[in-house]
Amino acid sequence: MIEGIQASEIIKQANEIELSPERQEIQTEKGDKASFANVLTDAINSVDETMKTSDKEVQKFISGESDNVHDVMISMQRAKLSFDLMVEVRNKAVETYQEVSRMQI
């Protein structure tokens, strides 16, 4: 019985907590709130576009349409760096999820 009262009190307190200004949802330029899923999707799409652009640069170089190896290498490194960053963010998100799932409530 005591555990039930404590649990309900904790739930009540958790519902009363407001997010601090730093923790509130991200405001977009239009003023609407962007969800975490939308922000993540946009970031993944940006990485995908960077990879596609790099691939096009490589294809142009291979086919002889472009002879600027410097731009090709920069494009490839930019794509690699953005992909590596995306993988690290994913790893950190998975690690955080696993840590939260191990917490005892």
Account of the 3D structure:
InterPro entries: FliE (IPR001624). Its main location: other. This is Flagellar hook-basal body complex protein FliE. Strands 1-2 form a two-stranded antiparallel ribbon. The chain has one domain (24-102). The mean pLDDT is 82. Helix 2 runs antiparallel to helix 3. By secondary structure, it is mainly alpha-helical. It is built from 3 helices and 2 strands. Strand 1 and strand 2 (33-34) form a beta hairpin.
Distance from first to last alpha carbon: 17 Å
Number of beta-strand segments: 2
Would you tell me the overall average pLDDT? Answer: 82
Beta-strand content estimate: under 5%
Low-confidence parts: none
How many domains, in number, for the residues? 1
- Which class best fits the helix and strand makeup? mainly alpha
Order of secondary-structure elements: HEEHH
DSSP helix count?
3
Main sheet properties: 2 strands, antiparallel
Main sheet strand line-up: 1-2
Helical proportion, percent range? over 70%
Q: Kindly provide the radius of gyration, computed on alpha-carbon positions and rounded to a whole number of angstroms.
A: 23 Å
What is the 3D form? elongated
Brief write-up:
It is built from three helices and two strands.
Q: Characteristics of this structure?
A:
single chain, 105 residues, mainly alpha, two-stranded antiparallel sheet, 3 helices, 2 strands, elongated
